[in-house]
Design a protein that fits this description.
The complex is a heterodimer of chains A (212) and B (350). Chain A is of the alpha/beta class and 212 residues long. Chain A has 9 helices and 5 strands; from the N terminus they run H-H-H-H-E-H-E-H-E-H-E-H-E-H. Chain A has 2 domains: 77 residues, Methionine synthase domain (Methyltransferase, Methionine Synthase (B12-binding Domains), Chain A, domain 1); 120 residues, Rossmann fold. A 5-stranded parallel sheet of chain A has the order 2-1-3-4-5, sandwiched between helices. The longest helix of chain A has 22 residues. By secondary structure, chain B is an alpha/beta fold. Chain B has a single domain, classed as TIM Barrel (Alpha-Beta Barrel). Chain B has 15 helices and 11 strands. The radius of gyration of chain B is 20 Å and the shape is globular. The relative contact order of chain B is 0.14. Classes of the chains: A alpha/beta (212), B alpha/beta (350).
Chain lengths: 212, 350
């Protein structure tokens, strides 16, 4: 008998071994990978997001919970990958030109993957041209742009403007975030959504594609 | 009140007493310096603006680097990690020195006693000693461990799963920093500036329990050591530190920078809560007013910072992080002028 509650608790505790073993057991009992993700792991990660939001969890707890989900995904991804359509959608992400900080972006990636997104990470210091090319060539639902420095914030707007100029803006929703950014600023530069941290990013992304 | 030297002004403020005028010093990006004093060196700029001190970072002036990829500005830092130099000449970490715990068994730390590390400091001592405060950067043990040594993810993971690894890393870094600080003080440093973030915009990076367990003890060791050699310390951390400010102050730091307005830190509230025990250093916004405000906006914001936090001394007025390349040169000049206009003691701003 699969214990989804125990799986959820393993994620909340950041217990990678337990998350892996419980996932393995569930698969051996014939439970579909999608159900394991939706009923065992994602609720754990959402709980962790809530604990982060309420100030009980901080970055270390977020990291080890993400580790637990990643460990379980080692078993699930080969199975989930056989499906043509990812659970939540396809997400393209990068830190804008001039900015090489990646902690915030990496946490967003971790939270998105754990919540069932297929994520393509362009890395740090991504040129406007590289973002436009990736959007043009892929079939992504959301583009996430991160800026951790005040001085690189203008490059977020420039990237959005370049998408417009290239006729690509309507193809993709744009989410922005990063330490110095605000919701007001996001609206002002023409982004579709703003997320202040990783757990919020997962929630906002789900809302943007109508799957919250 | 008799006119003070810049050094006297800064030390008086750090002692929570009133100097003749609110002191000011700042790290200013080369592009901004160049717009204000074309062709001038950093030292000439300090004199041109009549700053009360000069601050430099250990990362840029006393760490060694080896070239990895010149076209991408990637170098290996002295700890063994990979960094990339930004257009501001700041080395930003890309990959940490320690990948697995086993790496520590054979790890050789850099040698802080190499004389070349102190050449820049000695130049400043020769030029400014006794007149302007010589403020030497020493990267915070947590920040160095998290960024350069173990990497963010590795460090945070180890806090939960392998605290011994953090203790080992902290010991290596602290040993280096204690010897570095000793050398700097012996050569003429007036103040140690301990640089490294403990908080994000929303909240501290780690819980109060972890802050007390991992972050505060090595900082306290460094501060106690500098104090034993008669030298005050200023701690820099961005972010919202309201939940842990008492832990930071408990380490004995003399000054706290920048009282981050982006993170909702109001300098008036800070003055009320802890301005009696620590000198406040900040906090004219380098995210908004200095970047996109008018000269008058900056003048008024600077006045407001002095009004809120200057009473009784204990204020060094500066930007909310640094004067980076996005700051309008005229706005920086306006801030300095406003400090001189409104910062003369006794203050009469209410």
């Amino acid at each position: 008998m699969v214990d989804f509650a125990a799986m959820t608790q393993a994620v909340i505790r950041g217990d990678s071994d337990a998350a892996f073993e419980l996932t393995q057991r569930a698969l051996s009992e014939g439970i579909p990978a999608k159900r394991i993700l939706e009923e065992g792991l994602v609720p754990g990660l959402r709980n962790v997001g809530d604990l982060f939001e309420t100030g009980e969890y901080f970055l270390p707890e977020l990291i080890v919970s993400g580790d637990a989900v990643s460990k379980a995904l080692e078993l699930l991804e080969p199975i989930l990958g056989k499906s043509d359509v990812p659970l939540m959608g396809k997400y393209l992400i990068g830190t804008v030109k001039g900015d090489v900080h990646d902690l915030g972006k990496n946490i967003v990636v971790m939270m998105l993957k754990g919540n069932g997104w297929e994520v393509t990470d362009l890395g740090v210091d991504v040129s406007i041209e590289a973002v436009c090319s990736a959007v043009a060539e892929g079939d992504y639902h959301i583009l996430g742009l991160s800026s951790l420095l005040t001085m690189t914030m203008p490059n977020v707007k420039k990237t959005i403007d370049a998408l417009k100029a290239a006729g690509l803006r309507d193809r993709i929703k744009v989410m922005v975030g990063g330490a110095p950014t605000t919701a007001e600023w996001a609206q002002k530069i023409g982004a579709d959504a703003y997320a202040k941290d990783g757990p919020t990013a997962a929630k906002v992304a789900a809302q943007l594609v109508g799957k919250s | 009140m008799a006119k003070m030297t810049g050094l006297q002004r800064v030390l008086t403020a750090l002692n929570i007493q009133e100097p003749d005028v609110v002191p000011h010093f700042e790290r200013v990006a080369k592009t901004v310096r160049e717009a204000i004093l074309p062709g001038g060196t950093e030292e000439e700029f300090i004199e041109h603006m009549d700053m009360d001190g000069i601050r430099f970072a250990d990362r840029t002036q006393s760490w060694s680097y080896t070239q990895v990829d010149a076209s991408k500005h990637i170098q290996r830092d002295q700890w063994g990690g990979m960094v990339r130099f930004t257009t501001e000449d700041n080395p930003i970490c890309m990959a940490p020195a320690i990948k697995t715990e086993k790496d520590l068994d054979t790890y050789t730390a850099p040698d802080p006693d190499e004389p070349w590390r102190y050449e820049y400091l000695q130049r400043l001592v020769k030029r400014f000693k006794g007149e302007r405060a010589i403020v030497v950067g020493a990267t915070d043990i947590f920040a160095l461990g998290r960024e350069n040594f173990l990497g963010d993810v590795g460090y945070f993971r180890a806090m939960v799963k392998n605290p011994d690894l953090i203790d080992r890393a902290n010991a290596i870094i602290l040993d280096y920093q204690l010897r570095y600080v000793k050398n700097c003080i012996e050569l003429g440093a007036d103040i140690i500036w301990i640089n490294g973030d403990w908080a994000m915009t929303e909240k501290p990076m780690v819980s109060r329990r972890f802050t007390e367990r991992f972050l505060a003890p090595p900082l306290k060791r460094l501060v106690d050591f500098a104090h034993s050699l008669g030298t005050p310390c200023i701690k820099h951390t961005d972010g919202n530190i309201w939940p842990i400010y008492d832990v930071i102050i408990g380490t004995g730091v003399d000054g706290l920078h920048p009282i981050d307005p982006m993170a909702g830190m109001d300098i008036g509230e800070a003055k009320e809560k802890f301005g009696h025990s620590v000198c406040l250093c900040g906090n004219v916004s380098c995210a908004f007013s200095l970047v996109s405000g008018s000269v008058e906006d900056v003048r008024q914001e600077t006045r407001e910072v002095i009004r809120k936090a200057g009473k009784g001394g204990g204020l060094i007025c500066m930007s909310s992080n640094s004067v980076h390349s996005g700051v309008k040169p005229d706005n920086y000049v306006a801030m300095v002028k406003a400090i001189r206009e409104f910062g003369r003691y006794p203050l009469s701003l209410d």
